[in-house]
Amino acid sequence: MKTGILTKPEIQELFSSMITKNGEESRIFVPATIEGRVILEEFSPEREIFYDFANFLRPPKGIFFPQREVLCSFEQERAVEVPPAAGRIIIFGIRPCDARSFLFLDKIFSAGSSGFADPYYLGRRENSVIISLSCIEPSEGCFCTSLGGGPGDESGSDIVAFDLGDRLLFEAHSAKGENFIEENTTEFRQPDAADQNAKKESLQAAFNAISRISTDGLVEKLDDDFSDSFWEEITATCLGCGVCTYLCPTCHCFDITDEKDRDGTGTRVRTWDSCQYPLFTMHASGHNPRAEKKQRMRQRIMHKFSYTPRTTGDVFCVGCGRCVRKCPVNLDIREVIRKINGE
Amino acid sequence: MQNPYMPSPVTIEQIDIENDLKDIKTFRLKFEREEDSRRFNYKPGQFAELSLFGFGESPIGIASSPTEEGYLLFSIKKTGTVTSELHNSEQGRKMGIRGPFGNSFPWDRMKGKNIVIVSGGFAFTTLRSAIIYMMDARNRGDYKNITAVYGARSPGEFLYKKELKKWQQSEDIDLTLTIDRQAEEEWDGSVGLVPSVLKDVSPSAENSIALVCGPPVMIHFTVPVLLELGFRKEDIILSLENRMKCGIGKCGRCNIGHKYVCVDGPVFTFSELEKLQTE
Amino acid sequence: MIEVQNQMRILASDLIRQKRVDFIIGYEQGTLAHTSRPCIIDVRTSGPEVSEKLVWNSYCSNNLSVYLQKFFAPPVQGRKKDAAPPLRIGLIVKGCDLRSVLNLIREKQVPRENLILIGLPCTGMLDKKKMEINKDELDIEKNIQDSCLECRFSNVKGVDFEITGKTREVPGDLYEVVRLFEARTRKDRLAYFEKEISRCIRCNACRQACPSCYCRECFADQKDMKWLGSGTMSDTMIYHLIRIFHQAGRCAECDACFRACPEEIDLRTFTRKLAKDVEELFGFVTDFNRESIPPLSTFSSGDSDSFITEPEEGG
Prior knowledge:
A: alpha+beta; 11 helices; globular; C: alpha/beta; 13 helices
């Protein structure tokens, strides 16, 4: 495994030099604060990378799967392909839970699941480098360790970086990651025993702070058709908004709509959509197979914990806790799972 | 990488009004580019996403058969934004098509079998495709007896009246048409709902496969009749509809349990559906 | 507060014992720190001891009236009318919740006779975000929600049961935030609106959390007549403008929209501005008066029309 140490100012310099390098343009996304909100923002040399945060409010899926994107334009009743933006994408500073979500999204948008590859998502994704930043202070509501992740988990990351205070320890976990360290080898210093110790300590502290749920045998448990009243009880206070799905790093449902200008030209756009909205499944005839809130919440839980484990082999939840923290009525998915477990 | 979201250009060559209510029209589409036509290899039972730019897309079952070369047929009921606009369209209008999508009727399994077709109302479209395909001289030998029961509210609501007339006179298919209740118009077919007429026709389940397309209530009452006739659950073939957008198993809305209607269906056996948790 | 909570529990268990309600809507302990959350208790299937679940503290900010309308909504087309007698709901209300309830009654969404309103004294709810920022700050006033700071209705009136206790004093300046906003140039105000709205991800949380947003089909969801596109900046601005304007003279300033917004968009400045305009132009406040007619539901020849005759000069 290739490793290296950089101080925080050195990282700032490294990224500044990478925006344009050897004739190749890179879009680099880094943690930044704007008016007290921590967001993943496109890097420029003036933009100071921010390290003191738990996680971003929004999941990073939007970089590869934007909330709104044009699929094609049309003029004179003819469609014109709009290719996704080209160029390398470097994402630095997302947490390991979010990096892990990319592995799941990859399965949906690649040809594997249905025989059709999604050129918009893959066009960006395939030319990307993911450098995640290990968790130091997990938030309330985090439960990644129950789902195969962890504060220093490498799945989905090309490189995992560990914040050791004034410096970062980088560990490559893929060929892309190795290349990245190789290409910039003059910048990196080799880590010593003190660095490794500091890493271990920070991980342990984070690990201990993460809440846990049991997902053992959950797929089978969900096979027992829970009664309507179970789902009704779970969703009694649900407001029916899309917060849990829009902020979920693995939720990937979308809508496709046309927008037309007066002159007949226009665009076909893809936007995030949510299984929590009644319109999501409503037929043109007015019939709706998931007309009720309890059916829609059941779909959300089943999709993540039963359907995707069957179709892709993965539970589509990374335990980032965004839905837990941001639900306006504190409808806590951990609690739902515990109830399904019979706890 | 082939972009599965990009529609191929087609032109509306012909529009036929199918029924007295005039809310179902059949559109004959022709590809503008020869290569698109060649690439569009389909089997009866599949569907396509039809595009009217500025209005959107709509998933529609293919009503033509691959044996009918050079064009595609779609019979479309006026329901939503796209289908209403299609109904406002005139011959010559340019539009887009993506597909073919979904599985098809189980053609491999159907070879050498008696085929029983049960349909009601507007859902007959992909069964037209299936019948035309099987009746084609090149394919007819692959299937044994073809029995069809097709019901509509009234005589004027049957689709493909010309073809129905031809099939009624054909030795190659045993077609029973039925209307829900006695009509004022002249009618020499059966009267009664599809499930009960099917019971009367009583096709043998021996070495048979049944294709069933119709409104949910018809399916609900037809399946027990077939089971009673001795059809095995895996030999009862149903075609489903759900709201769809992408057609390629990504957008997440057309699922029934862990199956997507757009890629794992729209054709399912009754035994498959029984296992899926229905919503 | 603990005393209020005790009284509330006793009252709730009495109501259950006397079979005076079918449901009680109140607050329970949440799963996160500093969090209480709504709970809807079907008391037909539970004993009076279930009232022990109810809590009352400084985190009970959800506006519970948002759940009322669905109990009384006419059945969805095509379904048989429920023959069962209409349900009786016991609802815990603060001043803001109560004003939302009265609004629903005025707008004939909820029958007063089916409600048993339990009014609690409110000293203002705490803002979790502020508490995170002012980590070591013990001064409660610094962590009170903005909406509570400008509240003049913490003392409920016209409820069926009132538990009395300490309430908030009416502040001197009711519209400080709006006044600051109004003092800015028109260009600045638009820029601020755009900046805030640009973060919107169209999750509909603001709409869903709002007790006044009960339209069976929201204009934003209409498909046959499509008013809104998929989410360009102008679509999103229209979404919010219409949502906000629909609140004129109806908003109870409970800030449910603002709290629900995952992007922390400052929705309250805009709804507050509307409240101030309605108060100044039409003399109407969404107060505890059940009989008053909101300006959007009525017309008088003396109504202000200066927004037509004397539109504000560009600033």
